[in-house]
Design brief:
Blueprint (H helix, E strand, L loop, with lengths): L1 E9 L4 H14 L3 E8 L7 E9 L11 E6 L2 H7 L3 E9 L14 E4 L2 H8 L5 H12 L5 H11 L8 H14 L1 E2 L3
Parallel strand pairs: 1-4, 4-5, 5-6
Antiparallel strand pairs: 1-3, 2-3, 6-7
């Protein structure tokens, strides 16, 4: 199994954190992993994306231009990356703020109302974990117990009290993923 993923959105949406948690979770399962972030100089509001590869085999290069999965959190990222999803791949996106929806017919397209669900949970910072939960429902490439270990390794110890909230957000995302209706 090899899964090549791009996660893309604005800085401040938890894009890099989501990728890091996914990568750490793969490491906890003794898989080969790469995590390659890319972001602008802005602290918040600039573009951010991360490529994560999780594989049972050695990974020859962290640089890829086609993905098995694209997790998209804003219009600019959808415009930039939807054509880079391999035929038969997965495009998962939050429709909040999407004006020009995806047009591909050769991939699976799903939505997750991450921003809306995070607001319903009363904590906008859970947004990225809700989206991660939707992805894991569609492609359970890492076990939930390893996600928890990934959270422990990627969050500073002072934030470990938030791990149960993050796990709850992942569970919400798993239960709220939707088919894309054009």
């Amino acid at each position: 199994m090899t899964e090549e993923i791009i996660i893309a959105g604005f800085g401040g949406q938890g894009v890099l954190s989501m990728g890091k948690i996914l990568a750490y979770s793969g490491v906890m399962q003794d898989q080969e992993v790469t995590w390659m972030p890319s972001y602008g100089p802005e602290m918040r509001g600039g573009t951010a994306n991360v490529t994560v590869i999780i594989s049972d085999d050695r990974i020859s290069s962290p640089i890829i231009h086609e993905y098995d999965t694209a997790i998209i959190l804003n219009q600019q990222s959808l415009d930039k990356f939807q054509d880079n999803v391999k035929p038969g791949g997965l495009l998962l996106f939050d429709p909040n703020g999407i004006i020009n929806p995806p047009t591909r017919t050769d991939i699976t397209i799903k939505t997750i109302e991450g921003a809306e669900e995070a607001a319903a949970m009363g904590n906008p910072k859970t947004f990225n974990m809700i989206v991660l939960g939707a992805f894991l429902k569609l492609k359970p490439i890492v076990k939930m117990e390893n996600i928890e270990k990934g959270l422990m390794n990627s969050l500073p110890e002072r934030h470990h009290s938030l791990i149960p909230l993050n796990i709850k957000a992942i569970e919400v995302g798993m239960n709220k993923v939707n088919d894309y209706k054009k």
